[in-house]
Specification:
51% of the residues lie in helices and 3% in strands. The protein is an all-alpha fold. It has two domains: 1-54; 59-126, no CATH class.
Amino acid sequence: MFISRHYADTPQQAYGGGASAEALLLKEIRDEHRKQTELLTLIASSMGNREAGPLAVGDHRKIIANRCLKCHAEDVADNEGKGFAMSVGKEVRGFSRPEADEIGKQVGAGKMPPGGGLSESEKKVLQSIPVGRKKP
């Protein structure tokens, strides 16, 4: 018997099963988080902020992949990026504190990427890169 998820006491009652019920519940939580993030972005946009939206952990990886790896990918860094590789293979790598600080300094000074082109929110993200392993 299926019980409406709004009236169920457990995930098993709501979704009718063991591990798959937990997976469905996690999916529902993630979907709700995504919806809330989109709503916050929409609200901030409507308030006149062109670069609206909360910045999530890991956004620096997206920015680096889209804006920096043209010159700083592992396979072209020696020729194009003055030897500073920001990837391992096709994945954006983790950075040490001195590397993250230098990236923030170069971006903040407008030296990277050449010609600029980063939004203020992208600059803020790159000026506060978390350090450590590949996945934050």
